Amino acid sequence: MRWLLGALSVLPAALLLFLLADPGRNASLDSPVEHLAVVSNVAVLALAAALLIARTASQMGRYGIVLTALGFMSMAWTFLVHGLATPGVILGFDKKADVIVGASAYLSLLVPAGFFAVRYTGLAGWMSRQPLLGVRRLPLLVAGALASYAAIALIAPDRVAALFLLVAPPDAISGGYGGTYAADLGILPYVGAVVIALLLFAAYGQAREALASRMPMHFALVGAYLLLGQAQVAMVLAPIWTLGWWEYHVLMLAATVTAVAALFLELDRRRGLERFLPSTVVERVIQGDRLRLAGDRVTATILFADLRGSTTLAERLAPEAVVEVLNEYLGVLARAVFAHGGVLDKFTGDGLMAIFGIFPDGSAGAVAAVRAARDMVRDVAELDRRRAERGVASVGFGVGINTGEVVVGALGIPERADYTAIGDTVNTAARLESLSKELEVRVVFSREVADRLGGEVAVRPLGSAAVKGRAEEVSVFTLA
After folding, report:
1. Which pTM was predicted?
2. Tell me: domain 2-274, CATH 1.20.950, correct?
3. Closest CA to 395 of 443, 448, 351, 359
4. 249-259, pLDDT tens digit by residue?
5. Which CATH number fits domain 293-479: 3.30.70.1230, 2.60.120.10, 3.30.700.20, 3.40.50.720?
């Protein structure tokens, strides 16, 4: 993959230098209609894909992916204006069309480069917490701004052209690429330098993630940013309508296809992982932290939760109604696990097993597990209240928690495996859950758990109790 990235960073520039070194090689290819067709189709495809990715990322709350998708959406939108303004096709042969074509070309890289670079800074975190710039509103704001620019640029090009002509000479914007005219290029070379710097910064930030995770999709994004940087170089240096000028269009197409494919793969991978892992854990896995899949021995906290009276429920209700009730309660329990960074190991019919402390947190997951249990008690009480208002019976539940050494890893065969934990700690946690019914409390946890809480959660001792499989009685606790 490193060799591929190296080739991507050298080959486009080498081809451009080869073409520019001899005007005879850099032949003119003046094809306005073909230019409009190629640019418009590429832009529409990229825009559709970027919108789908932004929508999915917004639903999943992945702000970094939203910023990347918005970068490609803005590139597609402004590039579309660049194509629609092709002189002699829609807007005619005048300076207004030339200016819109040139300005939109620069905007098609400047605006996306800004989004890409912000993703790898602390500014992204700040933006995600602002009401107007949140994960759901920002795409709408950007889409509105891009649509407004496109409408004004195509309906009233003279007004938009006048604004751009304030910062650069007419020939610079309309056709000064690579010295087509002898006119001063104004600020455009500096704009190009800023774009290249932003794209290199984004490539560096993405490369760090790629090297940490070793995931192909991350390397693909690095390649896309480098391709766009090469496109900016070609845009500035190559005379208009020459092969070198067409090269930057091809590079933008290649970058878009590469990045969109990478983003789709990342979202698909995230969706699959988030069926079983909380989003915070998935984020760490995507960024390069490794879940232990080879049967490592670790100290972790195991939580079992089980519903009471589900057998009686099955005798009174139709199977469809039983499934509905179980899903309602199990959904509350599972969301509490996810909210505190636990790994949902499995659903056990009318209960669940969760693992806490897969990633070190100072308490081997004990604090997070007990807090999850506390949320379960609170949220199930609220669910019971709502069910009582509907005149339907509630379902009880019990929780058992234990901390100790377990072996975690993939259990099964290559074609189908489950990420799980095994060991005496797991067995004891399951038996503590059964003990909660006998002791008439919702939550029971061992001294190994209580000793790791550090006063962060109030507890109440329940004394000692006999636990099946243990020769000696076990000190047990519950929530205060």
Report:
1. 0.63
2. no
3. 351
4. 888 888 888 88
5. 3.30.70.1230
